[in-house]
Input
Amino acid sequence: MPAILDGRKISKDIKGEIAQKVTSIKAEGKRVPHLAIIIVGDDVASHTYVNGKINACKEVGFDFTLMHFASTVSEKKLIKHIEQFNEDEDIDGFIVQIPLPEHISVERITESISPWKDVDGFTNQNFGSIVSRNQRLLPATPFGVMELIRRYEIQTEGKNCVVVGASRIAGAPLSLMLLQDGGATVTVCHKLTENLAGHTKKADILVVAVGKPGLITKEMVKEGAVIIDIGITRVEDTSRKSGFRLVGDVVYDTVAPIAGYITPVPGGVGPMTIVSLLLNTLKAYGVKNA
Output
């Protein structure tokens, strides 16, 4: 049986470590770290993710602010509020939950965020810092994956690592982090890659971040490989009260028995993404209060 890369457990451990630091900050009579969240519209999944982030703030003792706008809000008004957050000395970091309505440019919104408050790690400055020796606030999901790998003491140096998916949020930055920090030999596959199985079958570490349920089957996986499934999709399931269930890009039931390590979905990478936001907020707080 494979070893489970338990993101829930590791994130709980990290939150305990953060909570201890917050307790020390309070004991010194200082204000605690403050995370702000902006959400636009009423997308159910987005609100679920935001609630998870708010609950995480409560668990560690962070202050938090939630600002909710209607889906009709103008891009200009949204940027105005972002600029106010940039200037607010009591806010250490903030995120703008995506997706955004079609009339709002995600790129323009992202680049309007101060890099040292961009705890999602999406701005060009933070993305670019991955390849420097002066890394800033790293993209949250890849940061979480690397921390999961580190805490489970999985060797990356010299290993063949295949990343399926080249998005700006996950695949692209993670491939750079595995190369720069992990010392791995990295292959990045995407929707135009021919013979995907020919690449994935060679991977000592296989990371999948596409959002396509069932993409990776057992025939595409090397026995004993480390499988990290970032993809998460809601699929209809009438047997459940919610009417849906969450699945990853990997066919877990058949791949897990031949894997060395594997992340479950849910409970793998998701909790690590949230705790990475907290770690980035704590880092931003520390820079401001150094």
User: Anything to note?
Assistant: The chain is about 40% helix and 15% strand.
